[in-house]
Design a protein that fits this description.
The chain has 7 helices and 26 strands. It has 495 residues and is α+β, with helices and mostly antiparallel strands. The relative contact order is 0.10.
Length: 495
């Protein structure tokens, strides 16, 4: 049984657990080359240049290198070197040879004079290449590392580059470690010893965050609600490596936004852009801690792929999110999505985790994130949020659900799988003084059949406290089902 404004029973499936297929080199959906074992192509020059399959011999062998040996004859002895005497040459051929050598020397001398003259007048390409080669070598045979100015922070038009944005905002990005209470019992440790005082805390996860504001000696950290919702204590790590104990201010599972605070001021506070002014196709940068704090402030870049994408929260509300193709991985949750002016335009929240999809990440728009976080800081809850004030169970959890759905279809409520069975009505609910009773069923809201619980959640998300809605109630009366309409006012949710 769940309060409608708290977490429902049927959460979104976790797609992180994927089956590994290691057959034929397929590991986690990635294909790898598997080399053959101990197989080599061996070339034997004594077999008419034919290649044979060679099996590596078994045992331990070292790589030995041998100097070339003189050829060996058929008898196994070294062949003696045969000396060949040159025959006597006629004297007339000697004179002719001398003349030819003299002519060649004169020609080479003329070529040398011409080459020198060309070199003095600007040089040739060959002489220039020779000079350049000598300059690079410097006679040492070693490479030289030259100074560089690094990546440009601005382009020729004065706009920030990716490196410029990162340099501007990285000190506002933080890593978050979440701690939970250890169990009072430690099974399987010390051969069955189950002692323990239960007072310790253990790190249960990490996430990302961004410094949003400071006031009254505190600095506030914006993050994702699902990062901190199950934690008992927290630590925030700054870009410079400093760590601080953090306190939970609050979180809102509907928008997936949470806030922590630390007792430290004078830090770099991020600036927030208007998410209503985002254009599809504009560049964006995600900064966070994918894989844990050892990869803190990793930078990925992409574009805004789409706007107003419906992404269901952990309690069943459809949020309108920014879709991006920048890499977002576990640990990025709660980190900032920046535009190219260095403004936060979203809080990274989720992705489609499947080997069939790439570049499908989602961020809560900055306007929604800021409104939610400011209300959490001021009130401890999101003010202006409407609710019915009931606890309910879904009809699908009952054994006789199919027969009830058939009866409702005969009443005109087709495919009413989202029907809610009322378990409890709060004292401040407007339904408390109505004829609605425990185990009555909500089958329609404002005339729309409850094909899913999204019908009611969408109405509540678009309404304010004090607004009136019409519920169609179904009640089992003996062997029949009766329906009637009830009009009620919504109340403010302070959860």
């Amino acid at each position: 049984m769940d309060d409608f404004n708290n977490k429902p029973e049927n959460n979104i499936p976790n797609n992180d657990n994927q089956q590994d297929n290691q057959q034929n080199g397929n590991v986690n959906g990635e294909y790898h080359f598997v080399p053959p074992k101990n197989q080599y192509q061996y070339y034997n020059p004594n077999q008419n240049q034919q290649y044979q399959q060679y099996q590596q011999p078994q045992g331990n062998y070292s790589n030995n290198y041998y100097a070339p040996q003189p050829p060996v004859g058929n008898n196994g002895k070294k062949q003696k070197k045969v000396k060949v005497k040159n025959p006597s040459k006629p004297k007339n051929k000697t004179v002719l040879t001398i003349v030819i050598v003299l002519i060649i020397c004169v020609v080479l001398a003329i070529v040398g004079v011409v080459a020198t003259a060309v070199s003095k007048n600007g040089g040739s390409s060959s002489s220039s290449s020779s000079s350049s080669s000598q300059s690079a070598d410097n006679g040492s045979g070693s490479a030289k590392v030259e100074d560089s100015n690094g990546a440009a922070k601005k382009d020729s038009n004065g706009n920030l580059t990716t490196a410029g944005v990162v340099s501007k905002v990285q000190d506002s990005c933080v890593g978050i470690t979440v701690y939970t209470q250890q169990s009072a019992y430690r099974y399987f440790n010390n051969y069955g010893n189950n002692s323990g005082d239960g007072s310790g805390q253990t790190a249960s996860g990490t996430g990302s965050g961004v410094i949003m504001s400071e006031a009254n000696g505190k600095t506030y950290i914006m993050t994702a609600a699902h990062v901190i919702s199950d934690g008992n204590s927290f630590k925030v790590k700054l870009n410079n490596g400093d760590e601080y104990d953090a306190t939970m201010v609050g979180y809102d599972s509907q928008t997936d936004i949470g806030v922590l605070s630390i007792k430290k001021t004078g830090l770099t506070v991020a600036s927030f852009g208007n998410s209503d002014k985002i254009d599809v196709g504009e560049d964006c940068i995600a900064i966070g801690c994918p894989g844990g704090l050892e990869f803190m402030n990793s930078v990925t870049k992409g574009i805004v792929s789409a706007l107003d994408r419906p992404v269901k929260s952990s309690i069943g509300y459809n949020n309108k999110c920014i879709q991006v193709d920048a890499a977002i991985n576990p640990g990025n949750s709660g980190g900032a999505l920046f535009n190219m002016q260095g403004q936060v335009i979203g809080i990274n929240s989720s992705k489609i985790a499947s080997t069939e999809y790439e570049g499908m990440g989602f961020a809560v728009p900055s306007n929604t994130a800021v409104d939610t976080a400011n209300s959490l800081i001021k009130n401890g809850y999101v003010a202006g949020r409407a609710k019915l004030g009931i606890q309910y169970n879904t009809l699908s959890n009952y054994n006789n659900a199919n027969s009830i759905l058939s009866a409702l279809e005969q009443k005109g409520f087709k495919d009413a799988e989202g029907t809610m069975v009322i378990q409890e009505i709060s004292d401040d609910s407007d339904l408390k003084n109505s004829k609605v009773q425990q185990y009555d069923m909500i089958v329609a809201v404002n005339g729309k059949t409850m094909t899913s619980t999204d019908i009611l959640t969408s109405v509540l998300s678009e309404s304010s406290p004090g607004d009136s809605i019409t519920l169609t109630i179904a009640r089992i009366d003996g062997n029949s089902i009766k329906t009637f309409d009830v009009k009620c006012k919504l109340i403010e949710s302070k959860n």
